Amino acid sequence: MSSAPQPMRQRVEDYIRKLQDEIVLSLENIDPNAPKFKRDSWLRPQGGSGQSCVFAMPSTTTDDSDSNIASHRHESVLEKAGVNISIVHGTLPPPAIKQMRADHSSLPLPEDVPGGLPFFAAGISLVIHPRNPNAPTAHANYRYFEITETNNSSSSGGSGSTPKVLAWWFGGGADLTPSYLIEEDAVHFHKTLKDACAPFGSQLYPTFKKWCDEYFYLPHRGETRGVGGLFFDDLSELAHVRLPSPASYTSDIGSIDKGGPAAEKLRPETQEEIFEFIQSVGNAFVPSYVPIVQKRTTMSYTPHQRRWQLIRRGRYVEFNLVYDRGTKFGLMTPGARVESILMSLPETARWEYMCELGEDQDTEEGRLMGVLKNPRDWL
Amino acid sequence: MSSAPQPMRQRVEDYIRKLQDEIVLSLENIDPNAPKFKRDSWLRPQGGSGQSCVFAMPSTTTDDSDSNIASHRHESVLEKAGVNISIVHGTLPPPAIKQMRADHSSLPLPEDVPGGLPFFAAGISLVIHPRNPNAPTAHANYRYFEITETNNSSSSGGSGSTPKVLAWWFGGGADLTPSYLIEEDAVHFHKTLKDACAPFGSQLYPTFKKWCDEYFYLPHRGETRGVGGLFFDDLSELAHVRLPSPASYTSDIGSIDKGGPAAEKLRPETQEEIFEFIQSVGNAFVPSYVPIVQKRTTMSYTPHQRRWQLIRRGRYVEFNLVYDRGTKFGLMTPGARVESILMSLPETARWEYMCELGEDQDTEEGRLMGVLKNPRDWL
């Protein structure tokens, strides 16, 4: 109706709501006989709201037939999955501002804003744990962060009057965690993400692919969490520590569809371009992942494979609880919704002392470990 | 043979080796038909050695009958258990010395020892996860830490020439984590520990009981890990932040068996007394815990109870990976033996989104939660 451009925070919120719907529907469509995702809307007392969409099979507590390592009963495609969005706002204390200034030089000195600054954050976060050990776990997360001037007038964080934005950035990524290495799946996942990055700069995929391998790494195990994907943070129109600086653009920046023999585009520069990039990789999640689940869920599997899957899920728990910044930050945040933060954990995980699985390189388990210990270029 | 008194590091090592043997044997005696604990000796490349004694049932990967929530098959009393000792030495860098000076004022200023200082640490650590949901999990840990002058002569850390000790202290404790609250078990556990503390000072049990409730607390869940026990650290002949200072002793310190109408003994003061206290609580582990397992392992249980037990084990994993100082320190230590550090994790753990179990105070699960949210005085 109105021709005035909407503020980015509103556009991001609209986008992640739509993306959540699409992803949940496409996951439900894989398995029409399974229960639907459970949709919970919640309010954060300190400001904001969200919607969690979670899949779980009802627990069978009345018979003796459910199983851990072995059973094929109750064969839903998914074992546990969550697709969450949250749109929150509040006040960022000066120490947090100090930390953020390293990557966001447009922020004021923390000592000049002793009362902190208002922030706004909107994001989508998802983790899918399929039941079949041949079907990989997937994770994705895309988020927008904004810091504004203190608004001495009426509403703070509402969509009425819009305070001046001091800094904004996007972050996110997607990664794949198989229990068994099926190379064509890793290639498909990476290729789909690379293609989604390509129109926005040639440096995005290689930079964010490397960052992903570095981020999802368990030092105490000497292995990555999975076969990687994309990971990035602090993406704005400012210089970025891992990307070529905007000043290095040689021509024709900001117009991704003019084509022609101009110099290679290295990265998105404007907010508009970056948001388009986010939508492109966000929209790539379903085509990057759902076909893999559809294909692998029909494969038969053994109790041995199930056991290995649960051990790998133990490593997933280790990464998320010991290293993941989002989880750690979330658990420390007063008023955070713990159920949403920890929905990333698998339904079941297993720890065996001195487990021999994965040690022999000539086994299927050992082939996965080879890749986790030495990340590979898939494309 | 020799009448020269042995150095404390040797006496502690001898004690924890004996204690490990006794605990493992008494656990094996509960269940004569189960496999024995697996004993692994290991060497730390950076200096030191240890022995892990671990119980696990062989994984059944060939049939379809093993189960997660429900099965009563393969009914060993224990599901997973580890009793480890380690005796390690190395060099403590100046930042670590700086941190330790807060509680150990006898240490030199870190700037005066730019090359760090030699340390020695010997400890026993155990976690027992029984299979029956009515039998609680138990954890105990007793350790001795010593910092010495840099030895410019021959051997470092060996038992030959003994360098001058700059600081030493003991730490440890024991705590009980039931899935179902059986009050007489909590009372028995606490009473056995209190009795073991009593000869060494009236302030030990109340101080260390409170410390235990504070330490084994999951802020993001607003609950303790279990029903507590003892927890302490930095116990030496110096002033202690939680105990009455040695100067407040009114008479007759250092002789615990003189008795008489002297003023009440508040805490152990000499190294000899503290080591006796450590042995007293260490020796109390078997009588505090084994009778409980023997009694509860004969109770029948339902799949519903097994499901709740696995959810509680998920909380155990959360505590150990997110908060436990020993685990975090261990995982960050180069050359640490990850298998020994993470043997504390249960064989299986479970995470359900928005699990309703425990919310209704009138259920057995809710009764446990009431105690975890409001720690109780058991004696």
UniProtKB/TrEMBL annotation, chains A, B:
SUPFAM superfamilies attached to this UniProt entry: Coproporphyrinogen III oxidase (SSF102886)
Protein family according to the UniProt entry: Belongs to the aerobic coproporphyrinogen-III oxidase family.
Ranges for region Disordered: 38-67
UniProt keywords, alphabetically: Oxidoreductase, Porphyrin biosynthesis
One Gene Ontology cellular component: cytoplasm
Pathway: Porphyrin-containing compound metabolism; protoporphyrin-IX biosynthesis; protoporphyrinogen-IX from coproporphyrinogen-III (O2 route): step 1/1
Entry keyword Oxidoreductase: yes
Official protein name in the record: coproporphyrinogen oxidase
GO molecular function (one): coproporphyrinogen oxidase activity
Biological process (GO), any one: protoporphyrinogen IX biosynthetic process
Domain of life where this protein originates: Eukaryota
Residue stretches of biased makeup (Polar residues): 58-67
Pfam families in UniProt: Coprogen_oxidas
Entry EC no(s): 1.3.3.3
Quaternary structure annotation from Swiss-Prot or TrEMBL: Homodimer.
Keyword set includes Oxidoreductase: yes
Gene3D superfamilies named among the record's database cross-references: Coproporphyrinogen III oxidase, aerobic (3.40.1500.10)
